[in-house]
Each structure stands twice: as C-alpha cells, then as structure tokens.
Write a structure and sequence with these properties.
45% strand, three-stranded antiparallel sheet, mainly beta
Length: 82
Amino acid sequence: MIPFVTLCASEPSAFAAAAAAFTVEADFLGDGTWCVYDDLEAPAGRTATHVFPDGCSAHWVRLTADCPCRASVILTYDWSLA
C-alpha cells in the first residue's frame, strides 16, 4: 500500500522557474516492468501532494521530471494499512 507521494520542487533551478511536470511510473509486479501511473504537476517552489487510491500497491515507484530542475520526492508509507 502506497498511501501518497509528496512532490516538492524545493530548489528550482533557473530552468525550472515555472511549474514542473512529473511522470509517475510503477513496477507493480517487481519484475522490472514499468507502467505509467499518472502525470503530476508541482508549481515552481511549491509542494504538490498525490494520494494513491485504497488498494494501490507496487514494488517500486519512480518519478521523472519533464524539465531540468531540483526536486525532492517523499514517499510516505502508512504502516497501519499493512
């Protein structure tokens, strides 16, 4: 269960003075098969939060930005749902 992903464009570079879009990919089976899960947007210098739906489960999650930028991604796991 992955309850949510928080995206934070913490120190946008000169190239990321505007919002940055992120592609969220997941490997649901843990076999290296990546699927596009969603596209998210973080406003420049702001935080965007995405809540995964109940029952969403993946072995791996990765995010890629559509432009050069500095960004932090925080994955929070809710152990009470395990």
